[in-house]
Amino acid sequence: MCSTVASDRAEQPEPFLEHGFPPLLGRDNSYGSITDRVDSLVLTQKTRWWWWTGLLTGLLLVGLLLLTMGILLFVGVGVWGIMIPVAWGYAITSFVWWIGIGHAGTLISAILFLLKQHWRTSINRFAEAMTIFAVVQAGLYPIFHLGRPWFFYWLIPYPATMGVWPQFRSPLIWDFFAVSTYFTVSLIFWYLGMIPDLASIRDRATSRLKQVIYGMLAVGWRGSARHWQRYEQTYYLFAALATPLVVSVHSVVSSDFAIAIVPGWHETIFPPYFVAGALFSGFAMVLTIAIPLRVAYQLQDFVTDRHLDIMARFTLATGLAVDYSYLVEHFMGWYSGNQFEQFLLSDRAFGPYGIFYWLVLACNVGVTQLLWFKRIRTAPLLLFVVSILINVGMWTERFMIVVGSLAHDYLPAAWGIFTPTVWDWAFLLGTMGLFASLMFLFVRLLPVIPAFEMRRLFRELWLGRRG
Amino acid sequence: MAIVERAVQAEAMLEPARLHGLLAEFDTAEELVRATRRARSVGYRHMDAYSPFPVEGLSDALDFHSRALPLICLFGGLAGLLTAIGMQYGIHVVLLPLNVGGRPLDSWPSFIPVMFELTVLFAALSMLVGLLVLNGLPQPYHPVFNVAAFARASRDRFFLCIEASDPSFDPAATRRLLEELAAREVRDVLE
Questions:
Q1: Mind listing the pLDDT tens digit for each residue in B120-140?
Q2: Cβ within 8 Å, pair B131-A234
Q3: Residue A261 Cα distances to A264, A268, A325, A406, A416, angstroms
């Protein structure tokens, strides 16, 4: 429908080249073309073989996850490699890793929205989806790690006949509140943002079933100016609420460690260190998803090379904050003069888990520095590899903190070495499969790009151009 | 086509006063804002504008300024904060006073994280409910959807609907006004 904004496009010779930067939105777009592109992803495009392959692989791993859960429930948490002193093992390592990944989505959708960063528009929807799906995985770990998961509701304060209540001085109960609040708020934020796009899909749907399903999801949205006014207010307030929330979640998670007296955990730098690590791994995961996604659905028009460049810069910036935290950790260990802290540092590098220490340094300090080079930031394939390595590095970092510190604390008599079992790996792979399955279903069934925000961006860029 | 028209006419004869309003279609956001402002200055009040994305100045043109949601957010947040304070003090001071390492029962600094979380949670939930209720959603039926062309309100067209309930509504005069305002087309909206 080229004629629809013909009047706009007639006076639009070089659209969207701001300050000589590559464009945020491909040329040859109009309100209609943006809408049709996003709606067609859901409504008319053929389901390709790679989508089925991806989804089925994911579901197979979900099967593995269910099997592991069944065995774990039947036998007990002993099927994992955890023991005393390393009682946290893979479960808490992976919990921290997943919840960290879940940070970039809300950062992109809330903080960058408040800072009026136009480039966030096209990537915010799937980054938010990634957040929600990652938090789902994160939530599984502590619950199945409880030993008797069917009593997890004891975390909820309710007048039990036993007369006991949760202990609000414990960071573990803060964690429960922080993660469940984060999940709920992210889910509402994501859904609210989707309502106008669901309405658009409803209006374009041709089959009765789709009209009914998307119609119900769109709650009768009709784009009334009065509704938009309230909608925008709400969206803004949600962004303002979500901003401190992002920072709070990983700060609370870090308190799980920092409040205990184990060397390697008991550090005041933990909250900002964990938040930086969370954003670092989250941005890496956004890149890991964005790069294949834009190729698969030919979305290079919306998720442009410039988006990848900016996200790589963010990854670099947060990565440097993480590297700085490593530096402070080492300095404070030495400066404290505490023999246990000093032992911890040498044990990390040269102890039984030494290899992980060097892997962390190689990935999170070494590989990250590649992002200084424009040639890497603008080469999607290299960037994809870098983002995977960062994800590996961040998982290893959490392993180093969780397992390494517990294995060798104060008394050598109480030391112990953790070795993962096959069910540790099965659970980790299973959550990856569940995450992948949810992402595959999301990109097929829901609007991946926020079309109404793209239409507004189109107008703003065009007005600014003419300005 | 002819059958449909005849059916519509027959229906109109049965119940003549079933016009919801007149729906004017525009190409650009600027034209819609201009038309809305004009219609308002001429004296129309019962009308609504529809656009595929939020348009700056459109709710001003309708003279619509809702300030309810920031207040709902504030009071929702306060309710959450008070709930968290009451819950934690109630549990640790009244219901289950436990001495943990000699700390005072009302050790408020360790209550802060949950206070913050419940503030945000309650504010978010009340805003969601507030937004839906104030906007009258979910709403399964609305007359504007009877116009087939209205499907493009979620794509690339801009609409202004002057409703028949407006005291100064007159089918012929209102239509003339909308046509003067560079409307691409003006259609009847049936209830």
A1: 999 999 999 999 999 988 888
A2: yes
A3: 9, 12, 19, 11, 18
